[in-house]
Amino acid sequence: MEALQTILRDFEQQLDGTNYRARFLLEKVGEGTSLTAAVAQLQQQYQMDEGVMNYVEKVPYANLLKELKEGLMYRGNMAAGVKLKPTEEVMFAHKVVAFEQALQTHFPPATTNIYTFLLINPSSFWGFSYLLETAGVIYLFQGVSEYCSD
C-alpha cells in the first residue's frame, strides 16, 4: 500500500502544471465491515448528503483502469494543463503501467469488487471515485484534477 501511495504522490508532483493540478486519495475505509457501513462512515466523515448509497454501483475492474489512465494522461490546453517533455512523457507512461500493475497486485481483479462512489472533492477537468473491496477490507480511491491560478 505504501508503494502505491508513493507513486500517487509522484504523479501529483508531475501533474502540477499551469493553472492545473491533480490530487489522489487512497485510504482504508473499513476492515471486516459491510459496504453499507463503509459508505455510512464516509458519509459522516466527509459530511455528505443522505442517499449516498444510491450512487454506489458495482462496475467492472476495467472501468477503474480506464478512468485512471484517462486522468493520468490528460494534458489540458494552453490555459490550464501539464506540459511534459517527450522524454518525461515516456518515463511517465512507464510509471503509469507500473502503477496499474502494482494496483492489480494489491487489489487482484479476480478477488476485488469495484464500486462507483461520489467524488468528495469537485473536479475541474476529470475525476474518478471508487470503493475497492478486497479480502474483507474496503478502500476509497479517488483522483481529481483542479483548476488553480498560479
Search tags:
150 residues, alpha+beta, 5-stranded antiparallel sheet, 4 helices, 5 strands, globular
Written account of the structure:
- This protein is an alpha+beta fold and 150 residues long.
- It contains four helices and five strands; from the N terminus they run H-E-H-E-H-H-E-E-E.
- It has helices spanning 2-14, 35-45, 61-73, 86-106, and strands at residues 20-31, 58-59, 112-116, 127-134, 137-147.
- A five-stranded antiparallel sheet has the order 1-5-4-3-2.
- Strand 4 (127-134) and strand 5 (137-147) form a beta hairpin.
- The longest helix is centred in the middle third of the chain and has 21 residues, at 86-106.
- The N and C termini lie far apart (32 Å).
- The mean pLDDT is 93.
Short description, anyone?
The chain has 150 residues and is of the alpha+beta class. It has four helices and five strands.
**Largest sheet report:** 5 strands, antiparallel
Low-confidence stretches: none
Radius of gyration: 16 Å
Q: Structural class per helix/strand content?
A: alpha+beta
Q: How many β-strand runs?
A: 5
Q: Give the strand order of the largest sheet, numbering strands 1, 2, ... along the chain.
A: 1-5-4-3-2
Count every helix, treating DSSP H or I runs of 4 or more residues as helices.
Answer: 4
Overall pLDDT confidence? 93
Straight-line distance between termini = 32 Å
Percent strand equals: 25-35%
**Overall morphology:** globular
Order of helices and strands: HEHEHHEEE
- Classify the helix fraction into a percent range: 25-40%
